[in-house]
Amino acid sequence: LDPFIQRIADGDTSPLLTKQPITTLSLSSGTTEGRQKYVPYTSHSSKTTLQTFKLAAAYRSRVYPTKEGGKILEFIYGSKQFKTKGGVSAGTATTHYFSSPEFKLKQQQTNSFTCSPLEVIFSGDYKQSTYCHFLLGLFHSPQVEFITSTFAYGIVQALALFQDYWRELCNDLFHGTLSPRITLPGIRTSVLDLIKPNPRLATWVSSQCEELEESNWYGLIPKLWPNAKYVYSIMTGSMQPYLEKLKHYAGDHLPLVSAEYGATESWIGVNMDPSSVPENVRFTVVPTFSYFEFIPLHRHHLEGCDMDVEAHVGGCDDYLEGDPVPLSEVKIGQQYEIVLTTFTGNFFN
After folding, report:
1. Entry pTM
2. Where are its TM segments located (predicted)?
3. H or E stretch covering 55
């Protein structure tokens, strides 16, 4: 499909893959093939993301009920979009989603609202955005129902910065001001419109941080956001190394909830058991996200392999692929490689 997608990027508006012209392209992370690639992004992509988040929120609310109208402290960032040679908008899938009507609609339909305005999310300056995420998250501390980021490392990285920022944040909370480190006019205006002096809250946050410093910031999240029900993020795969640090910040009792399973190309499954620890999470495939097929993988021992030398790295095993089967024929205990065909006509595995 690459030649067709490249033609779209170069400005071909004929219906190469879909009936309607594709006007937006997402950039993949590059983790699968070692390079970034363009993936068509349509209104269906945003609607599927909205469906995913609503479905996941419904299951989370059964286990961890949240108050209607509560706040979400989200460490989310929209990157700069750019134009391809053919004038097609390109950027990350999250950037497209945060700028879509569905992002606002998700907040309205789940009745949970992010602390930060779009000016903060799309500032283009990570540190300035993160500072403002914290300031607004602390300003709304009693109303924050959960803390989230797209990936677990996003929360860990932000909380590491907090340890440098907290004194300035307390000063801003006390006086209703914004640190000189925030230089972007759009952010300054939008944030100052949302906060006001709160000496009592600032004093409380300061005392909590002084205690946290003594304990190496253990339990930082529940200490500063005492009404938070859980921490929510993608915690599987390459995010697993960040779990220990995230557990440190979450303390003894605040649950870590693994977010949904997906790729740049399509969402795949939803975590329908939020009470499962991230290490044991299972995802339920939602067949309406894409058309899914599953290639059975059968372990095959390589002849002549020295087990004593290679066993610890799995070097003595290879996998033979079987014929693809539909979701209805998937067997418990069998290992598969997922193949999906999106509604924009793309085929990925």
Report:
1. 0.86
2. none
3. helix 43-63
